[in-house]
Design goal:
single chain, 174 residues, eight-stranded mixed beta sheet, disordered N terminus
């Protein structure tokens, strides 16, 4: 299940090992009629589940910019964070999307040297796209929120990809 080292977390002093799966960012879209941005991730290999995560408009724009290679005239917050980490010679090892609790997604940014910090998944994903860090989803999260799409739904995924090709990051501006 876990092609990379599995992380351990402690709950009530009982170690729990979490298995992680590599994820790829398919893209960002706006869910209608709520007009809420969603980032869609896909499990690489394995069961190839999809993981939709609702994000804010600013984070959606930042993720879309990174995916499309757009360089804004002034750095966005995630670009600034990447530059700070680079200046301090701190590398991002992995991004772990860990759980869904009470409708809220959780993640950690794991730095080289063993330091980890909690982060919103949208911020972690935006940083991963800028640094090239792998994005990993826990089996627990994928079991709870992952969506298996059968072969008949491949057309829908293709339509989604076509939709992503036609939108611009500015479409997410408030």
């Amino acid at each position: 299940l876990c092609s990379t080292p599995c992380r351990t977390r402690e709950i009530w002093n009982t170690p729990i090992t979490m298995n992680f799966h590599a994820l790829d960012v398919v893209g960002v879209r706006v869910e209608m009629p709520s007009n809420q941005p969603i980032v869609l991730l896909k499990e690489i290999g394995g069961e190839e589940r999809y993981l939709p995560i609702w994000v804010g408009a600013v984070e959606a724009t930042s993720i879309a910019f990174a995916q499309q290679g757009v360089q804004p005239p002034r750095p966005l917050t995630h670009d600034l964070l990447k530059e700070i980490l680079s200046a301090l010679d701190i590398g991002v090892e992995t991004i772990n999307l860990t759980e869904l609790k009470d409708g809220i997604f959780y993640s950690t940014i794991n730095f080289k040297g063993g330091v980890s910090v909690s982060a919103r998944p949208s911020d972690a994903i935006a940083l991963a796209l800028r640094t090239g860090a792998p994005i990993l989803g826990s089996e627990e999260l994928l079991a709870a929120a992952g969506i298996e799409i059968n072969d008949q739904a491949d057309d829908e995924v293709e339509k989604f990809r076509e939709f992503l090709d036609q939108i611009n990051p500015e479409d997410f501006a408030g």
